[in-house]
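Encode chain A's predicted structure.
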Amino acid sequence: MVKHIVLLSFKDSISTQTIDSVIRLFQHISSSVSGVLNFEYGLNVCNESCKAKYSHCIVIDFRSELAKERYLVHKEHIQLKERLLKIASDIDVVDINLLTN
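Encoded structure for chain A:
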């Protein structure tokens, strides 16, 4: 299984409605691509002194690396990525290939 983790913050000028619409797009794409096992989204509520600069986190679980690759080249994902790059102040992506013992 591969976890696709998107950490992001939005520019101050971006409305809550715009942020919500972007999250709905993530959900929509996740539900329409074969091999997506789970979609999670939340706000960063960490109160530790090392708190990251990100305000939002999205986690998408894929059945395999192939499923993740299908998602990444999906037309709607490419459009979402272009939109995010315009409205995000910070964004990082981490993909974790979970290993089992």
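The radius of gyration is 14 Å.
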